[in-house]
Amino acid sequence: MDTNYFPVPKNEFERLKTLSSLNLDYTQLQQSFQDLTYLAAKIAGTKISLINLIDTYTQWTIGAHGIEMEQKPREDSICQYTITKDRPIQIRNLSADKRFKNQSYTKNPLNLRYYLGLPLQIGKGINIGTLCLLDKIPHQMDREQLRQLKIIAQEIVHRLKLYSAIDTLQTQLNDCRQSKKKVAHDIRSPLSGIMGLAQILEQQNTNPDESLQYIQMILHSSRTLMELSDEMLRSHRKSIPDNNFNLTTLKEQLLKLYAPQTLGKGIALEIIVLQGNKYGLQHKSKLLQIVGNLLSNSIKFTPVGGNIDVILDLQHTLGSQILKITVSDSGIGMSKEQLELFSNSSLTSTRGTQDEYGFGFGLPLVCQLVSELKGHLQVHSQIGQGSSFTVILPQED
User: Fold this and answer.
1) Are 386 and 350 within one domain?
2) Residue (of 180, 290, 168, 310) closest to 239 by Cα position
3) Is 2 a member of any domain?
4) 265 and 217 fall within a common domain
5) Could you give the number of structural domains in the chain?
6) Do 191 and 331 fall into the same domain?
7) pLDDT tens digits for 301-312?
């Protein structure tokens, strides 16, 4: 990895894992920080204020004042430098800085010159993004302005943690509701059996052999109830499918997040839903991260005029559900040596088809997330022919 071209935090993989663990849905956050971006711009006296989260490939804007929200390739962003520091970074003239002078935001119509970035620190040395202030004219922040902006940055991190906690609690609440329905359904049959047999014993004069038989049947039904309760205790932490999140909503969110990138590079993106759309999916945020990283990787290594195809399929086999996601591209492909490095988790970063920078962490993060979900990843690739990544994940019935 050539770090002469772009900055990478020393704890980059830990940083990405921390961001991933928050399980944030960027599409649902975009209206949640308007008050803080407005307040930050007023304190700083700048025209523009942004809140950005930075993952492996992309800078995601989740709050904006004075400009439309948009995503940006990480290597084109100013904030990629800010997340490497534990202090604010100030640049008074972007057009005079060789790192940024050729970027579109320093030219018409934006003509940005001033930048102030404050890291969003969620743990010691772990910066998941930035609060940044931008303007066409230079500014000089005094100590009090910086203090107030740091308070806003801390509030942003606090809100992100709250949104993450709310999502976790909502998932647990949904689990409880589903468990309640399941319990009510599953205990009816054995309870009915126990009640019926008890009534027979109460109402009829039966001989000892018949009574023993009824008692054995009651014991069997009671054991069934005990097994159900044991199963509930064992599985109370299992994730239950979210019926509002299915293959179609996954497709819609992927298009919303990644179609702008493929359009900007002249790549045709197609996402196909095969079957299983009526069933809810588990692990919404992790699925978006897994497929998103694979899509970003394909975008990076697919030339202009190329194709990226995503196939989403929820298969039912022998009483279980298997989610199968395939991301295929017509990109430059990988050699046998690179595939071996990938299988050994030793794949290093290379440049994309338009000389995009790589960070070397996207695919390893995918592997770890897939492993955490007890799935597996299959890779097929050939130099000059493209690559195909297939993720196979078990889903609770």
Assistant:
1) yes
2) 168
3) no
4) no
5) 3
6) no
7) 999 999 999 999
Residue 351 lies in domain: 247-395
Tracing tokens 């005990």 back to the chain, one arrives at 226
For residue 2, what pLDDT is reported?
39
Residue 53: the pLDDT is: 97
Question: 258 and 385 in one domain?
Answer: yes
Strands of the 268-273 sheet, one edge to the other: 268-273, 307-317, 320-329, 386-395, 376-382
Structure tokens at 144: 């009090």
According to the model, what pLDDT value does residue 184 have?
58
pLDDT at 180 over 80: no
Residues 223 and 97 reside in one and the same domain: no
Give percent of the chain with pLDDT exceeding 90.
54
Predicted confidence band of residue 115 (pLDDT cuts 50, 70, 90): very high
In tens, the pLDDT along 31-76 reads 889 999 999 999 999 999 999 999 999 999 999 999 998 899 999 9
Burial annotation 217-247 (CB, 10 A radius, 16+ → b, else e): ebeebeebbeeeeeeeeeeeeebbbbeebbb
* pTM for this model (two decimals): 0.73
pLDDT, residue 3, reads 40
Q: Does any domain span residue 76?
A: yes
Are the beta carbons of 310 and 272 closer than 8 angstroms? Answer: yes
* Paired tokens of 170: 């909502």
Amino acid at 49: S
Cα–Cα distance between 154 and 160 in angstroms, integer? 10
Which amino acid, residue 81?
Y
Q: Are residues 260 and 294 in the same domain?
A: yes
User: Which among 160, 70, 91, 98 has a CA at the least distance from the CA of 123?
Assistant: 160
Q: Which of 12, 153, 25 is nearest to 87 (CA)?
A: 153
CATH code of the domain in which 74 resides: 3.30.450.40
Q: What is the CATH number of the domain that holds 378?
A: 3.30.565.10
Q: What are phi and psi of 381, to 5 degrees?
A: -155, 150
Instruction: Determine the Cα–Cα distance for residues 64 and 61; give it in Å rounded to an integer.
Output: 7
- Evaluate whether residue 5 is within a structural domain: no
**Band (132; pLDDT cuts 50, 70, 90):** very high
